[in-house]
Input
Amino acid sequence: MLKSLKLVNYRSFSKLYLKFHPKKNIILANNAKGKSNVIESIYMLSFLKSFRTERNAELIKFGNASAYASFEYLYKDILNRVEITIEPKGKLVKQNDKMIKNAKEYNQRFEAVLFEPFDLNILKGAPGHRRKYIDSILTRLSPSYRDELLSYNKVLMNRNKALKMYKDKNSLKAVLKSYDTQLITLGAALVEKRKTFTENFNAICKAIHMDLSGGDELLIEYKTNIDIDNDIKMAYENAFNANLDKDIERKTTALGPHRDDYPISIGGNEARKFASQGQLRTVMLAMKIAELKMIRSFNKDVTLLLDDVFSELDKKRKKYLLDAVGDMQVIFTLQDMDDIKDLIDDDYLLIKLETNEMIYGGRNGR
Output
């Protein structure tokens, strides 16, 4: 559960300090007043990266050499702190006063689920968007999946470098053999976990979507470029051997989990091509609620971050989302309290960002 947030020279803020309610938090401000910057900073402190940019310089307030962000949160009733100093060339991360040297050293204890407008690209965009989204859930549910994915990507990068670098075909084949052995083992492990996850995720999303849509059937499938109904490892080995000459000719690796997709359809029609904006929002809402449920099923506390999406939902879907959240911590960004005031009780914190005013359930807070 998030307790507090501190920002210095981060985006539009020279200084900002916020405390949070254990349940519902509403960040109220007009457009371009920093609401999304608050959500972004919380996400960054949890995942060590922004969901809006890969350029550190964009996170630093203009005219400053660096920015600072920190938050405190409860994990198993123990107060934890993460601090990040952001410089144009990189980030310096501390967790409970210990310097973190790489991603493997970071112990992610604050779980957050983000829902923001560009999430619709998961449904409308290229397969890479869907792979990235599913990987983001699986890496939190399975530490072994995270390690296998990191190792797979590293070996894949080295294999592709070899394909571009070696001129002699026989020498290249000898080098590729060692990489292929690793990719086959790692790839089979990833595919097995993705297959099982997709079956479970689809079942949860399907039931939620049925309630939200009034009967439309949602289907999330797992599509890979080998036969996964039998021995996956052997299927990869056969496929790599059959495709070797083509990889050498094209100087890239054509097969593997890095080419997977998760086609999504509504009533038998591909959502990416045929769904309306309203249908896409409903599908994405179902997927986010399913994500929350799956993370909570692993006995993990989770905070829901809703950035500029609540006002886009109709009253039925707003109520469904709030009911699904239950007693979880949630942080909304809103422009107008009318979007939510009839749907929540007095147990909330209103943060008026432009005046730095905090109101607890309709009463002025301290």
About this structure: The CA atoms of residues 83 and 94 lie 5 Å apart. The two ends are 20 Å apart (CA to CA).
